[in-house]
Amino acid sequence: MADVIEDKIKNYRTAPFDARFPNTNQTRNCFQNYLDFHRCNKALSSKGQETSPCDWYQRVYKSLCPMSWVEKWDGQIEDGSFPGKI
Fold first, then answer.
1. Which of 21, 35, 45, 50 could connect to 29 by a Cys-Cys bridge, CB 3.0–4.6 Å?
2. Cα dist from 12 to 22, 26, 49, 83, whole Å
3. Where in the cell is it found (predicted)?
């Protein structure tokens, strides 16, 4: 299974269709993948496991989200004022 995940990450081009977000506006998709990346990292790190499966979420949010948003959210996480539940 790890080989399949690695192949998908290796062949990644842009964010695939996600049925949870069928509309043209992908803002919620961007935010959800940002949250999923940080939740995945937190969960796997706390168990002492490899966090490489989380790279998928990072690649998706980096292809969907404007970098100014990501920088703002990263700053909010550091300040403890991020509105999402990680």
1. 21
2. 20, 18, 23, 29
3. Mitochondrion
Range of the domain at 58: 1-7+27-79
> In this structure, what are the phi and psi dihedrals at residue 15, rounded to the nearest 5 degrees?
-60, 125
Residue 55 inside a domain? The answer is: yes
CA angle 14, 35, 56 (to 5 degrees): 35
Q: Report the domain count for the chain.
A: 1
d(CA 24, CA 42): 30
Place of tokens 């990292």: 41
Show the tokens assigned to 49.
């496991």
Could you tell me the CATH number of the domain that includes residue 37? Answer: 1.10.10.140
Residue 86 tokens read as 């990680």
